[in-house]
Amino acid sequence: MKFTTKDIYNAVVIKFKGQLVGGPEAEDFHKVLSDSIAAGKKNVIVDLSDVGFVNSTGIGIVVRGYTTMKEAGGALKLAGVTNKLEGLLSVTKLTSVFELHKDVDEASKSF
Questions:
Q1: Distant-in-sequence, close-in-space partners of 80: CB < 8 Å, separation ≥ 6
Q2: Which of 36, 51, 64, 103 has its CA 20 to 30 A from that of 25?
Q3: CATH number of 2-109: 1.10.8.60, 3.40.50.2300, 3.30.750.24, 3.30.470.20?
């Protein structure tokens, strides 16, 4: 699980690449969220367009991130969700929790 971070428009964009399966980078992800909140940046977009595989731990990481941002008065939205991942989110009823967007530009305009 690798990710990069950048600010775009009015949001922090966290772009995951490869497999979203947990590991030590999960804590790095949550540190980025905490640092963003501390800096007053409460709009987060998680870009999943380059993610090839997600397991339950990976879903849990994103759900925890969503909860962290919501409790801080912010929002976490998903962009670039593949059909396969959208199917997984649908089966787990998480499509009713997350706001899904086709790409980062669309997600950033929704804030």
A1: 47, 48, 49, 50, 101, 102, 103, 104
A2: 103
A3: 3.30.750.24
β-bridge partners, 75? 43
What interhelical angle do 25-38 and 56-71 show, nearest 10? 10
CB-based burial of residue 97 (10 Å sphere; 0-12 exposed, 13-18 middle, 19+ buried)? middle
This prediction's pTM = 0.95
Closest to 22 measured CA to CA, from 71, 70, 61: 61
Question: pLDDT-based confidence at 46, cuts 50/70/90?
Answer: very high
